[in-house]
TrEMBL record:
Domain of life: Eukaryota
InterPro entries, per database record: Myb_DNA-bind_4
Residues annotated as domain Myb/SANT-like DNA-binding: 7-95
Entry-linked PANTHER family: HEAT SHOCK 70 KDA PROTEIN 14, MYB_SANT-LIKE DNA-BINDING DOMAIN-CONTAINING PROTEIN
Bias (Polar residues): 112-129
Pfam families tied to this protein: Myb_DNA-bind_4
Protein name stated in the entry: ZSC20 protein
Annotated segments matching region Disordered: 109-129
Length: 129
């Protein structure tokens, strides 16, 4: 299936991206990595093996858009608005649920420092990963 620049991602292409993204080593490398071009080059190669022709920039843009949309829907749900939905929410929830979130913690001297916590995790669900 050929897809050029500017073309919308098909459902099959998004599913292929999610399947690669859901791999533990990919999630680990993506978390906290600011310069991630190499990871997305690898993801694009993996997608080509699955018949999805997208370059690393398209993969990174789709990754960022899906993540943003997921967080928007998740925030709405946490605020009580269950009307906001997205197509791959449950798939993304399974991928992003265990991602550490950086939070600011107040120190004794009044300054803030970044600490990592994990949302929605428990020892039983972590060991299945």
């Amino acid at each position: 299936m050929e897809s050029g620049a500017g073309k919308h991602w098909t459902e099959e292409e998004v599913k292929a991206l999610l399947s690669v993204w859901s791999e533990k080593n990919i999630r680990t490398q993506l978390h906290g990595t600011l310069r991630n071009k190499g990871i997305f080059i690898y993801i694009a190669k993996r997608l080509q093996e699955l018949g999805v022709c997208r370059d690393w920039k398209q993969c990174r843009a789709k990754y960022k858009n899906l993540k943003y949309e997921y967080r928007t829907v998740k925030y709405a749900h946490n605020s009580g608005d269950v009307t906001k939905t997205m197509k791959f929410f449950h798939d993304l929830d399974a991928i992003l649920r265990y991602e550490p979130v950086t939070q600011l913690a107040a120190e004794e001297n009044g300054r803030c420092s970044a600490t990592e916590t994990q949302l929605n995790t428990s020892p039983t669900t972590d060991s299945t990963q």
